[in-house]
Amino acid sequence: MFDPSVKSIILIAVFVYLIATLAHSLYFYRGVKTADDYNVAGRSIPTFPMILSIIGTATGGASLLGWMADAYSSGLGMLWLVFPIYIVTIIWIVFFLKPIRNLGTKFNLVTIPDYISLRYGEKARIPALLCILVAYAAITGLQFIAIATFLNLMFGLNTTTGIIIGCIFLTFKTYIGGLKAVIWSDSVQGTIQTLGIIILFVTVYFLSGGWGTVKENAMAINQPQLVDLFGIPTASIFVFIFTLGAYQFVRQDNWQRVWAAKTDKVAANSNWFAIGIGVVASVFIVLTGVFTNLGLSIKTEQPALIFYQVVSETMPTPMVVLMVIAVLATIVSCADSFFIAGASSIANDIIKPYLKVTDQKKMLHYSRLSVVILAAIALLLALTIPQLVPLWIAGTAMLTSGLLIPVIAGMLFKGISEKAGTLSIWAGLITTVVWQIAGQPFGIHQVFPGLLASALTIVAATLVTKPQNTALIEEMSYNNNLGSSDLLYEETLLNEKASSKNA
Fold first, then answer.
1. Superkingdom of this entry's organism (predicted)?
2. For a tag site, which of 80, 82, 364, 503 has the least CB within 10 Å?
3. Average pLDDT along the chain
C-alpha cells in the first residue's frame, strides 16, 4: 500500500511521536501527588485541553477507521452512527451535567459505581462495577489490537507482538501520568486527529467532484440507497440510538471529565465546544467513506483499510505521514482515556472499599497498580478472544442496560428505594447477558430486553419497598444539585483548612 521509502519516513515519524508522547506523560509524573490528581486530574483542568480531550476520546481508532469503512460499504445512512451520540450528549449536557458535577464535588466521587453505591447502598456497587469493567476492559483490549493492526499494516509486525507492544506503551503512558497527563496529551492528539480528518475530507471532496457527482454515480450504478440518509433498516437506527446513543449517559470517562474540570463554566463550555467540533469531524469521517466509494471509485477487498488506501492514492508523502500520525493519535487519545476510566473503578470500587484505604497517597499507589491490573485483563482478552469487538458491544449493552435507568431514576425520583435500584441493575445486567448467550432470540438486540427488564424491576420494586436513607436521597436529588459547584468546592476547601488548623 505504501512504498518502502514512504514507510521508512513513517517509521521515523511514529518513533518520534511515541517518544514525545511518553516524555509528555513523564512531565506530569512529579505533579501527581494524590489519587484525586491521578483519577480526576485534581479537578483543575481548563477549557482548551478539556475540549480536545473530549473530542479525542469520542473519536477513537474504531470510529475513524470503522465508520469510514461502514460508510464506504453502506453509504450515507451510516450517519446514524453519529447522530444518536451527539443528540443524547446534548440532552446529557443540558439536563444532567450540572447535577453530576455537583454530586461529584459534594461527595468527592471518582466513578459511576461511587455514585451508585452512595445512592443505592454498597450492595449496588458490585453489579455497577461489573457493568463498567467488562465494557472498559474490552475496549482497552480493542485499542491494543488497533495498535497491533497499525504496526502490522505499516511495518509487517505480527499481531501478537503488536498487541504486546501496544499494551506496554499504553500501560506505561497511563501509569505515570494518570488522567491529568491523559487530558493534556489529548489536547495535542485531539488537534492532530481533528486537522487530519478535516484535511482528508476536503481533499476527497474536491477530487471526487462534489456531492452532485457522487449522487449521479450512485444513480448510475442503480444504488440510490448509498446517498439516502434513511438507506439503512429502521431497526438498525433504533439499535444505534439505544446503544451508541444511550451509552453516552453512563460513560464513566464523560463523568470523570466533568469532575476534572476547573470550574462549572469549563465543564459546560468544553462539552459544548467539543460537540460542535466533534459532530463536524464525525460527519466528515462518514462523508469521506461515501465520497471515496462513489466519487473517487477506489475499490478495495478490505473496506477496513480504506482510510490507508485513500491516503496512499490521493496525497503527497508529507501529508501521508501526517495522516498516519493522525490515525495513531486517534487510537492513543481514545485508548488512554478508556484505560484510566476502567482502572479508576478497580482502585475506587474494589481496593478502596474492601481494603478500607483512606490515605490519598496510598490510594495513588493503588490507582497506579490498578492500571497494571486492567492492562493484564485487557491483554488477556486481546490475546485470547478473537471476537473482541462483539465483546465490547456486549459490554456496552450491559453497561447501558444495567446503569442507564437506575442512574437517571435515582437522580429524578426520591421514592426509588435502595433495593429497587440494586435489583434494577442486576435485572438489566443478567437479562442482557442471558439474551446474548441465547443468540439474540427473534433477532432482537440484547439492549432492548435488558432496558425493559431494568425498567420493570425498578418500578415493581419501588411499589413494594421504601427508601431507607431519606436524608441522603434528598441531598442527592436532582433539584438539590442545580446550584454552583464552584461555591461548594470553595466551602469544602475552607472547611478542610479549618479542620487542619484545629487538628
1. Bacteria
2. 503
3. 89
